[in-house]
Amino acid sequence: MIRIFKGCIIHTPTKDKFEIYENEYLVLDGNLCDRIVSQLDQDLLDLVDKGEALVMDYTDHLIIPSFIDLHLHAPQYIQMGVGLHLPLIDWLNQYTFKIEERFADVNYAKKCYPAFVKDLYDWGSLRSVIFGTIHNESNQVLVEELDKKGLSAMVGKVNMNRFTTIGLTETVNQSLDKTKGFIDYLTEKQDTKQEAIVTPRFAPSCSYDLLDGLGQIAGERAVPVQSHLCETRREMDWVKDLFKDRLNEEKTSYSDVYHMTGLMGNTPTVMAHGVYLEDRDIKLCKENQVWIAHCPTSNNNLSSGIMPLTKYLDLGLSIGLGSDIGAGHTLAMNQVMVSAIENAKMRHTLFGDRMIMESEVFYLCTKGNGSFFEAVHPEKSIGSFEKGAMFDALIVHEEHPVSGSLTPLEQLQRFLYCGEKQSIKKRFLEGLEI
Amino acid sequence: MIRIFKGCIIHTPTKDKFEIYENEYLVLDGNLCDRIVSQLDQDLLDLVDKGEALVMDYTDHLIIPSFIDLHLHAPQYIQMGVGLHLPLIDWLNQYTFKIEERFADVNYAKKCYPAFVKDLYDWGSLRSVIFGTIHNESNQVLVEELDKKGLSAMVGKVNMNRFTTIGLTETVNQSLDKTKGFIDYLTEKQDTKQEAIVTPRFAPSCSYDLLDGLGQIAGERAVPVQSHLCETRREMDWVKDLFKDRLNEEKTSYSDVYHMTGLMGNTPTVMAHGVYLEDRDIKLCKENQVWIAHCPTSNNNLSSGIMPLTKYLDLGLSIGLGSDIGAGHTLAMNQVMVSAIENAKMRHTLFGDRMIMESEVFYLCTKGNGSFFEAVHPEKSIGSFEKGAMFDALIVHEEHPVSGSLTPLEQLQRFLYCGEKQSIKKRFLEGLEI
Question: How far apart are CA B132 and CA B105, in angstroms?
């Protein structure tokens, strides 16, 4: 059966513009996108007549690539929106670490993760790259919940052996063994769309030998890597001080710590934030094709500063977009996109950075983030409706008082700026409705 | 019948802190707040027993003052979230003016305003200060829709006699006559909670004699005034050029134009934005107790800059908060509050302004905005639950995976940062559920 989706198809094969097809037809080949046509030709009409092709009619609805969230902390769903008046260290101690400790109890995870996964699903983030906690049993609950909802994610068992609470502090060996255990669990698990990602919390939380051990695991098991990088200047100074024996005149940067330990680009790597990348960071991130997950809502809430998005894009860095809950206060990637646009506009006004285009930010959330999944699965094409791409899609309809008065692009803008969960009518991942 | 509301009562009689009463009792006297008590005393229990008092049990729900929106454009609901990638002038010409012209047709208003008013209601903004269009018939539709939903607003017939489209350009006499007509309509209308406000769009849209005529009407009819002030530097330069014959060494500012024409403080006055108030503006605004409606979402979308909120607060200016749709992209005042907090944090990080407190922003949206209504109706107290205040309230409940784990303040934070319309369970205006 050939499926043909009719509607207002919008995607961004390139950053510089939206490709828009008003009430045209997206023809699938199995679960992959094949072509977009303005009219059904006689061959397709014949197949429809014979019942061998089916037109899914979403006239006047948007058909857009589903959203991807490149950085978020699942346990922090509990604290989302809470305590953001606190300075970072107080926020971590009063909320984040206390809550993460509770995930030692698998029953706590069973209470929390269904709601988290439902919210992720409701907001249309069908793929994501997630920090769990240090606890494998609870991380497994997260995997099971993602499977139940049909979502696809990379899930990381978090590693820390210092500068956190006693309850969250592992030894190097514990941390490495449990990381291997979680990779084994996911490698062996049948019928799952989730996969493992090596997840040192950030350089300060890990001793050099823990980082080094994690780099070895990532390389040996060919597992991708996620962590944090250059979120604040204070953190950068701290890293340079903590690892001063490893840094030298040539290796001067925060990134070097990850790079020396095999955690930067040996396997596909995503680093959250990068608000203050130095020249050396930029060089290493480019050379090693590291993805930077821009998390504007988080940066705003934690007063981290404004990432120079257009500058990084023009330097050719691989940028993606993340909600970073609980420092970010919403899983809604449409709202995160708006926040990215607002922050880039603010840099334009305050510092003269070039203006952002909306298509660039949409690209980041779809094809940009998708390219990280492609790096892990080179056989897949993810985040657009180009020929051969996975049909990952949202069917969207925004109510408007004067129906029919908005162009497809205006409908998309309305959805990005004003969309609620209820605006998303259907969700498809790899061709299947979920 | 005495009504007693039980729940987690939070309000801000002063800016500096939240007053929080966890599952206590707010006792009404008619439609006014009387007192908050931790326990029902024997007298109240007896009244309950006799059926002369009724406890409305919202245990574990928040009871907070309903939101007030101090600046928004009703017709722009049509364009909310749309075209915000455009520079201001293009945005005005391609969207705002074209759409406002359509309100010459009262049937267009009948299509649009019910949806707008429903959204305002859904998000809990039970009072607001609204720009309509130049068209009295359509403005009357707006009034009727507000009445139907039980909301209370000040509604302005917009005045313009230059620098807009031909369709929206009135002569001075037309503009003044229609303004009087709209005031008459609202003065004579029975059973309405809406009232008129004199509404020159902004100084550049009005010749000096139109402004002067509007100032006279406002004074003679004792009607409040709303307009725009110092939103961008370019606009300020334009005003100073347009009115250079009226300005001099003493009267140097944008504010002077309004002040000279009786539009600044003769009657209660609210000015939107004030991003770039100069010393002279600040002096005039303070001397004339002008409210500045801070509209952070709008400022961000239009790249207007970041208003120095804490600086203005510390200077003793009267500040309120507005959604400013359609330059703002949401009517949700909880989201506007978050935007105000984020912008103030950004100024803290970038320019060293002092940090904002969440209670200050909550105060702005409730008691701060309410004080403008009080200025128009000195017999009323609006925006808190202090003794004698109107019981304007929202009953709010946020779902949370671990119910009972959040303190009342944390529940409020969760609602501000993550709340959806569905979080608001009940709405009360002047004591009555609407």
Answer: 14
CA dihedral A80, A82, A86, A87 (to 10 degrees): 0
Residue type, B231: E
Cα separations (Å) of A124 from A69, A434, B178?
Answer: 10, 11, 48
pTM: 0.97
CB A394 within 8 A of CB A427: yes
Q: Which of A85, A138, A399 to mutate to test the interface with B (most CBs of B within 10 A)?
A: A85
Beta-strand (E) ranges in B376-419? Answer: 393-396
Please tell me if residue B349 touches chain A, with a CB cutoff of 8 Å: yes
Q: How far apart are CA A21 and CA A43, in angstroms?
A: 21
Strands across the sheet containing A225-229: A225-229, A269-273, A291-294, A318-321
**Alpha helices (H) in A302-332, listed in sequence order:** 309-314
What interface predicted TM-score (ipTM) does this complex get? 0.96
> Chain B contact for A405, CB < 8 A?
yes
Cβ-Cβ contacts under 8 Å for B371 (sequence gap 6 or more): B291, B318, B320, B382, B383
Give the DSSP letter of residue B355.
P
**Alpha-carbon separation of residue B206 from A49, B295, B301 (angstroms):** 64, 23, 25
List pLDDT tens digits, range A382-402.
999 999 999 999 999 999 999
- φ/ψ of B130, rounded to 5, equals -120, 135
Instruction: Indicate yes or no: CB of A84 within 8 angstroms of CB of B413.
Output: yes
**What confidence tens digit (pLDDT) does each residue in B287-342 have?**
999 999 999 999 999 999 999 999 999 999 999 999 999 999 999 999 999 999 99
Question: CA-CA distance, B294 to B274, in Å (whole number)?
Answer: 7
SS3 for A28? strand
Sign of CA dihedral A212, A215, A221, A227: positive
Tokens 């979308």, located at residue: B301
